[in-house]
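quick one, 191 residues, struct below
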Amino acid sequence: MTIEELLSELQGYIPWNEQEAADRPEIIRQIKTCPDIFTRENRNAHMTGSSWVVNRERTKVLMVYHNIYNSWSWTGGHADGETDLLAVAVREAKEETGIHTVRPLSDSIFSLEILTVDGHEKRGQYVSSHLHLNLTYLLEADEADHLAKKADENSGVAWFSLEDAIAASAELWFRARIYSKLNQKLLSGKF
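---
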């Protein structure tokens, strides 16, 4: 996907709620004005792709226990130069969980959000606080697939019921604003 195609999709995206309505124009502005927004060279903000990975029955969510945030969370990662954020989301879901059988339920953006990232240590280096301009995609995985943690990033991988996925997160803002939204959207069938 080219930057122009991504911008077109973002401009046509219908926000689900007030948070998305507020975040969408800023994500578009950043993509248009920051040539390095798809790389970590932009130390203030950069694009990321995440996924809400569900089983075939749409009753469970696959989550990882994220070492930096000390919380169960969705899968996802940095674009690192890639403008196809669906490809980023699929790659990260596989890398972080060990699953092999995963497919997008839609090629379209499932949700979008601007996420704050507190300063932290990663691989022995300090990473300053910054923003993730995030696009989320809805993926389906085979519950029977072997799960494997990615030791340098997470210390657990597990399936949770939709409600338990929210409760498992130690990040209150994510529980209230992101994971609850993703479940509502999933249950609405509008994806």
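The chain is about 35% helix and 30% strand.
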